Amino acid sequence: MPDPTVTVVPGGWALAAAGLLGLLAVAAAALDGFLTARAAGSASSGWSHPYGEAARLMRQRRRTTAAADRLLWRTGGAGLLLMALMIITVVPLGRWTLFDLDVGVVWFNAMDVLAWAFVWLTGWGGNSTHSLVGGYRFLAHGLAYELPLMFALVAPAVGASSLNLGAIAAAQQGLWFVVWMPVAFLVYCLGVLAIAVWGPFSPALGADVAGGVTAELSGVDRLLFKGGRYALLAAGAGFAVPAFLGGGAGPLLPAWAWMLIKTLALLAVFVWLRRRLPAARPDVFMEVGWVVLLPAVLLQDLIVAVIATGRG
Amino acid sequence: MLTHVVFWALAVIAVLAGAAVFIVDSMARASYALAVSFVAVGLQVLLMQQNYVGVVTILMMVMEMAVMAVYMVMFMGMNPALMPMSMVHDNRHALAVSIGVFVLLAAGVLLVPWPTRRGGPPVDVTAALGEELMGPKMLVMTGVGAVMAATIVAGVVLAAHRSRYDRFGDDLRRRPADDPQPGGVGR
User: Which of A7, A46, A231, B106 is most buried, by CB atoms within 10 Å?
Assistant: First the structure.
């Protein structure tokens, strides 16, 4: 059942939501620029890095490759941004939502699966060996992270007895889901890093395969792909707030402000993790996903289901 | 009105994308043309207010096509999958079969006496659909699900050419296991 505490705003607000997602993505890129500059010990602070990079890529001439499948290549490159935009349509910002879908959690799942298509298509389209190798590295990661991610999404839905995000956020008054579903939350965060091809899941873009999926991407296509990754991190952080972090719950400030603060905090952690976690080799991570993550998250679901049944 | 227009537009997209599967000359395009066709059908199901079924259709089909891309390289070898290739073969028989099936289904659509609507749609159409499909057979279906999963696992175990003796040695004491592809947890 759609939750009565959530108001559906007119469709025109979608532009504002997209703008907000853009701001979050730019903030993530700026933070990453700062962290990169600090790690490299460079003279500039790095905060303005995304603007310079965007300006450079927008002026860059497109690289062409022989017998490229342009349609699929461009579709894949622009797809990540599209996924992020579709994800945030079901995420309520405090009281307001664009699309009060009764199966919001499944919607997120359907959108995150699109990464399989878009990242691989980007690798395929350029008709280049290195980028295709990158695409298959991503699919190998996908085979390991996707099922644990799906079962991690089951936990909040079972805990709240609803697939609607507004209802899930409302069910966390008093105790946030992250407190009694920590495993599901961690696996979910890992899944978000994976769909954004970020941190431990960046071997698909590895320097050892000349940039992997992005090897032949240039100009606006590269900008869209890179921007799409930051947007996915932001959308994933935004979705985690109503799903695990109590939604807009918090003292003093209004719900929408808490929503943004929590999203920004989680987004900053995601960006920071890039330098803190080792790369997960796709072949090695496969066993971690199936032997460690999947049983752990299934056990988490069992515990959540028993508690939810016990509470009636 | 708008819903009708969108529904028919999606129907046309689904059919055209389905036809494209056989016209294009690349495995990737064929796979994702099929995915587009299924996504259009999923959106149609969404228009019929079957939200869960519609979204799950999109989810499953996109993932299925990506898995097909994995199989393309695993089982087909690099060459046929990565080069331009025709998506049709045995044209004459295929044409005969597909025309036959089309005529059969179209005749069914036209000849079946469709019932007229009695009463209004229920509040939760997804639950009503599940009830209608499964109803009293729910327990059997749940049992069949477990049996199917067990069958898949058993099938993979029987098909795998390496047994635990190959991995752990004749006395099953070798650690770590001798695997052609070492895994991340060192079993």
Answer: A231
